[in-house]
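re: that complex we talked abt at group meeting.

here r the seqs, copy pasted straight from the sheet so there may be weird spacing, ignore it
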Amino acid sequence: MGNGGDTYDSLLSSVWSKVRRKHFFPELPHPAISDSMDRVALEIKSKQITLSQSFIEQAARHLPLEQVIEALLDHGVSHYTYCPWDFHTHLTLYQEAKRVFKNKDKAQKSTDYFMDVVADTHCFKDKETSISQLYRHVERGALDEAIHALYQRIWGTDLNVQGHEEISRKLSRIPYLDRKHWPQSLHRFSRIIGSMLEAEQKSGTLNQPNPMGQNDFGRYSPEEMDQGLKEFAMATADPGAFKDVVKDFENELNEAGYDASSSMMGLGPGSSLDADTLFYMKLAENYTLPIKKIPIEKSGSLYPVSHSPWELGKPFRDIDPWTSFGKVMPGITQIWERREGETFGQEEGTPNCIVVIDSSGSMTNPRQRLSHAVLGAACASDAYLRNDATVAVYNFSDAKHGGHQILDYTRHRKKIYQTLCHYFGGGTRLDIDGIQSLQDPSLPDIFIITDMQITNLEVLVGYLNGLENRVTAVHIGDNARVSHFKKSTNIRKNISVYSVKKKNDIPKIVLGKIQEYFKSVS
Amino acid sequence: MINPFEDFKNYPYKKKEIPLDRIVQAKEKVIGEIVEGYLKLVEEEVKDLVWMVEHSRLIKAYSSAVRTIQKIDYDTDDIEELCIELDKGDKIPYLISGPAGIYLSALLNNAKEDTIQLGLYEFKRAFHFLGYRLPQGKTLLLKGNAGDFIGAGLSGGRLVVEGSTGNWAGAGMMDGELSISGNTGQNTGAWMSGGQINVEGHILGIGKTIHGGRIYHRGNLIRPYEASTR
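got the structure back, here u go
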């Protein structure tokens, strides 16, 4: 901060206290003033509002300093307390603008201006604010003039703007304060300002920020992003629509620190954003499938499970020379992570799970439309991961001709989802040896999801009937083969069969539901 | 005991009435009346479930639409909003193309404004019959592709389409000018008795029976033959 920093600090504190009270004490950190922001009045990063000192000084030539700061804070806080409110709403609004423009920059700018109009109008109507006085003196581009002409109409106050009669008249018909209709309202807003954005694009000024600051995603915390993406995946229920929006913000999401590596809910550090995988990850988080636990006893012996980088101080005996290129060097050398083995015993636990997923031509391509098979398998995988178990995946179509992918037991959520989302298409022929290769003496649960239109269904039925593992079989849709499968496995008490015809059928699945086990733990 | 709302005791909270409230309320009222009029027309027109394009039926539907809208104080913004509602179907449970187009034309022809611009780019549906019986003194500019029977029965007005039209463009037009920057479908200008059609794009087919008027293709007169070969 430049000269007079103390004056600004004390003034900012007193105004902030007033603004907080006015906006019913929002959970926001104390704002700051920066002397390095030239182009915009304020910015919000991780909920922290930072005001531009140069903007304040310029505006203070026409208005008392206190009023300038209060108006800017009112504007910033209204975005937090009213519009967009949360990340999900922000994405939903952007999606609507993108439908109109099919162009990221225009859609983003239109969404920004719309959110400004909503937040400012809410503030002007419901709070005592100096926003209108401030707007009388800000520097304006053509679009800003049009928006201020709109404010003149809908606020009934003079902002020293001439012209823009037609556009402001059309814009004034939009019910900005009707939250339920925001997407439709933004659609209309975007159509109306479309020609002005087109003109900005031609003149090369489209990327210039709104003078009051851009409403970028940097304002949200990674947790808010996680929650917002989860809600957005649920609301769109369409991988294409989800991808269309999320792909546009790959860099912004990464820059904003979205990788959620600390939990199993994210992608992991340094990962590129695969929007299709992310869609099913976030959608699956909306469902929680219950798992019936079984009596399990720790065997006491440790066995190697996965690799992790070796660091100084870690024991040499766990180094895996095969993956360490013969070197002992931090960052290159890999060591085995060991886990205690489990056998049946008296304590309740969750066994590991083999997820078998059909991705043949008769199944929905998960990258084109919502695949209930992938969603079901994803929910099942998450349920086992949440219960500290590991998951192996067998994804198949015409397995005899190479149409299969096997992922060994892992807790790496992204790898599991990538394998689940892989789509082969083509015929459906199961290779029992593939599933058998994942079997182990601890009897992992088996979760199989298919439309049952498998050429060698008899082989599968025979195999499952010979197993002692708990099997959860889920069929997508109904057909003669489903009935045959149900009849053939009916006498087996370790096999539960569920039907999924729509998204809402998924939460009805109970994993590993077997009468005997159920009795033993209840 | 501490009052948890103590901090708000002196908070000067009063909701202001701003012009936006009045504008939105008035708009909602007009749109409600327009939609009601449309539904009434549809109810009258689809009694026998099938809506056939017949001359007498068109006249009857148009007259009925004009009667319905007479008492409504609307402007072109309301017409544009009706198009959005018809396209999205939130307020309107069903769109029947024929009556919808006739109703829109009745609104356009009786609007206060002499020059009207309607953007059709964003709509998923194609609107038919736009510019039906457009009277003298009115100019209608359609931006984007339109449906069938555009400018049918044109009655002296000027209809400009910045895009393509479907079949039967300018069918039965009596006077005025229909300019299409894109393509037209089959039976362009069928039964026309006067006026002028200008097409810049491809014409899929000209109407077999043409009683009068002129059709130009990229500036060249193509109907009537006699005049074009003279």
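couple things i noticed - Chain B is about 30% helix and 15% strand. Residues 179 and 198 of chain B are 5 Å apart (CA to CA).
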